[in-house]
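Data availability (excerpt). The following record was deposited with the supplementary files.
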Amino acid sequence: MDSNELLRIVDTIHRDKNIDKEVVLEGIEAALVSAAKKHFGEDEDIVVVIDRDDGSISGTHNGEPLDPAELSERIGAQTAKQVMIQKIREAERDTLFAEYEELRGQLVTGVIQRYEGGAATVALSNVEAILPRGEQIPGETHHANERVRATVYEVRKQGSRVKVILSRTKPHLVQRLFEQEIPEIAEGVIEIKSIAREPGYRTKVAVSSSDQRVDCVGACVGVRGNRIKNIVDELGGERIDIVRYNDDMQVLIPNSLQPAEVDEVILCQMLGRAIVLVREDQLSLAIGRRGQNVRLGSKLCGWDIEIMTREELDEQIDQAVVGYASLEGVEEELAEKLVGEGFLSYYDLSVIEPDALSEMGGGLSNEQIDRIVQQSEMKAEEAEREAAKQRRLQREQAQIEAVAVEPEADETEPEADETEPETVAAETETDETETEADETEPEANETEPKADETEPKADETEPETVAAETETAVQPGDESLEQPDVPDDSEPSESVEPAGVLADSDSNADSQVIEENIEAKQD
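Predicted structure:
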């Protein structure tokens, strides 16, 4: 193998794979040793060295120098090539691992190649990373060829490859987005002190400014909220609360519980607990939906925050004093001191440090301290059993009520079924009424001939009308209307009657009266 060609290959691998030259040369040496052992025997002592300056190869076999030409001729080239490729891949894997290990917690941008089973495969610059379903923001969905920003959560070696796991749920993502969108944070003027996050729902960020002229909260919000809006859009509409940081917990805790108004903060140093007193109308706001506000505030401050009203605190203090005083070896003065330090339950007293209890008790012996702690543990276990019993009874009662409601629902179903016959009966009645209506139709049809019969009556009234006109026209003493021939007057009445229709008796009577009147006039 030509030394110049060897050095040129090493330089090419260094530039293309971003692998250190020393690592490549060590890999080639190991490959040559492995190939030589397959030729001479695995138990043979073989050493191969490559000169870093001129690329010349030298080796020894059981202390005897090997001729470079003999080394090149006797060693299998294919074996050396395979070993060399394996060593180079391992070196490449180690380089990638070291690169992304340094990026742990940093923001990276990639393109989604596949989205299967809820997990997304993201193509980064030189490796394919995985964005698992559990590391995605709840409620968000991705699709192929979508650009996504996430932080490097975990890096591990897997065979000859490097597995990179990304995350969009960790607080680091919020911090990196703040650094990108807010120049004052990138410059170090504003510092992010702590972050508490529930991905997809709400995040609290505590910030402080090293320059008195720079408002840390206003700079993070931006003009008309344009800076924080970009971050919220990237997080899928997640709500972000920016809190002004303060070293004094009396100030930081009320800030962390905003927008709720806090009346007083009582710090219990021994327990790391803060009792926050609020008004009754601010209680639900301070706790938040499903305890989210107080939970995030506790994470942000690093203190266990317990929210209550003043009336609830007074009630718990009275119960704690009475309960502690009932323990053997605990006097009322010690009970008041314990309550003053924030120990409000038997569980709190069971985890107290013996030195602290001895100091508050005025030099209690170890036996007395052990006895007090033992009694507290027993009382705490008893209270826990009682609480569990109450929860079990509530669940059973709820189940009984649910079972009792189901038969009622079942009973109502037959009633619904019973109404079906009524409905059927109603339908039958409807059918009967329809039948009756159908039967009445012939009657209506029968009335039609009557209507037709009345038509002749209407026609028969025409002679009456004519007769009445005649009677009206013929007044007594009017001789100009006298007719010389009487029989001709009966012709109009006969012509008025329709053919084939008989006149009624009343019409005949009227006709007789008219004729008598005419005769009387003629006489």
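Summary of structural features: The radius of gyration is 54 Å.
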